[in-house]
Amino acid sequence: MLKIIQWASLLFVGLMAGCAHVDQPDLNRLYRSTLTNVEQPPVILIHGILGAKLRRAEGGQEIWIGPLSKLLFSDYRDLALDIDPNTLNPRPGRDDPFAITDHAAGVDFYGRIVAMLEDAGGYTQGKPGQSVEAHGRRYYLFLYDWRQDNVDSAARLNDLIEKIRIDYSDPKLKVDIVAHSMGGLVTRYFLRYGTQDVLDDNQFPVNLWGKSRVRRVILLGTPNLGSVNALHAFIEGIKVAFGRIPTEVLATMPSVYQLFPHPIAGDWILTSSGKSLKRDLFDVTMWRRFQWSIFDPVVERRIVESFDDPQQGRVYAQMLGHYFEKQLERARRFVWSLTVELDETPWELIVFGGDCELTATKLVIEEIDGKSNTRLSPQEIKHPEPGIDYETIMLAPGDGTVTKASLLARDSLDPRVARNPYIFFPIDYSMFICESHDQLTGNVTFQDNLLHALLSR
Fold first, then answer.
1. Would you put residue 455 in left (φ > 0), alpha (ψ -120 to 50) or beta?
2. Which residue range is the domain that position 428 belongs to?
3. What are the φ/ψ torsions at residue 197 (nearest 5 degrees)?
4. pLDDT exceeding 90 applies to what percent of the chain?
5. Smaller CB count within 10 Å for the chain: N or C?
6. Mean pLDDT over residues 212-223, rounded?
7. CA angle, corner 20, sides to 16 and 22, nearest 5?
8. Cα separation of 31 and 79, whole Å?
9. pLDDT tens-digit profile of 402-431?
10. What total number of domains does the chain contain?
11. Distance CA 400, CA 403 (A)
């Protein structure tokens, strides 16, 4: 899931693991005996947003993450998707995901989970297009362009599974899926609809595409009811080292809209007195009213000035506004499409996540001298009202990016309170650890329980 990455801080933080002894499970010893029973369904590991390196299809220039100099100083404007002004869709085929983001600036993202699958789990990496002749355990990396519409990514996931079936010479083969963050949303859409785009209207005809293709799904840190952090990113951009990916770049990415909080996830915007403003996040009028993202006059001016011809800049800014409105509506339908009721759930669903970090769950509009000011954290409140605990109303337990309530697709943290009847999310079981969103995959407690789940019959 999306996190505002503090790269500069990560570069200079010293790791003190050698200063204290911490007991940890020995995964190699725990699962050594399972290596004699090597036949298991293939596993597909799916990364989240920012989780795959991207390069130009022509020329091979790496645009994410790139060299350290780019990581430190770039604003990553070349990540902006090229939009067709006639269809208001991103033009396909310009960039390729070519590797998982395993490490960056000395920080692990997916390196440790890959190593664990190989060392303790006995899995070897499979390559689509290579026949599987011998029995054994294989994992596959599903690399996708995390900027694109999650519906398109679900179709690409289907392509991978069909290739694996051909490689195994088994047209009825089922796979296990381990999906981190936004990768879980791609997975959930695939399970329900497969390659079908159901976002043109509000009908959402479920075909249970995953029924014959998926045995078990493990979701890790998935924002099943969205993330307020995605909204933060659209308002102020994503901090990367000494720079920031600007909001006008993020506004070209359909997937980020689809991370917004679900309409029935609860109040997401409050007054400084703690009262709900009852605003529709997926209504472009609201964005214009508060001058967020590309509707901020400063951002509009920046867009125009990025063109040599100011008239071209104004035309682009106007087109981007129409695109923004279209993507908001698709995102509304996307989040609803994942919560409509199913007649059956033929796959096993396991949920892991963190619940030890206070995580953004609401933002506040503070009125000062007749002006509406957006506050993203309790520390930003300029004139606190007596008796209002802003930390309590703006933050909730989670992993720093995804709240526990969103992970569980609940509008209440109280387990005694039934889930909203319009949120259908059947879980076989869930487990919580103390870890930040971007480090969940490397957490040894999660890895221990992941192997137990994958190797269970």
1. alpha
2. 7-11+29-227+336-354+424-455
3. -90, 110
4. 84
5. C
6. 98
7. 110
8. 41
9. 999 999 999 888 889 989 999 999 999 999
10. 1
11. 7
Residue 57 main-chain phi, psi, to 5 deg: -65, -35
Tokens of 58: 């022509």
- pLDDT reported for residue 37: 65
Least confident interval from 35-44, 233-242, 326-335: 35-44
CATH code at position 40 = 3.40.50.1820
Q: Determine how β-strand 357-360 pairs with β-strand 348-354.
A: unpaired
Residue 236 maps to a domain: no
Residue 109 lies in a domain: yes
What type of residue sits at position 154?
A
Distance from C-alpha of 160 to C-alpha of 141, rounded to nearest angstrom: 9
The reply to whether the predicted model has a pTM over 0.85 is yes
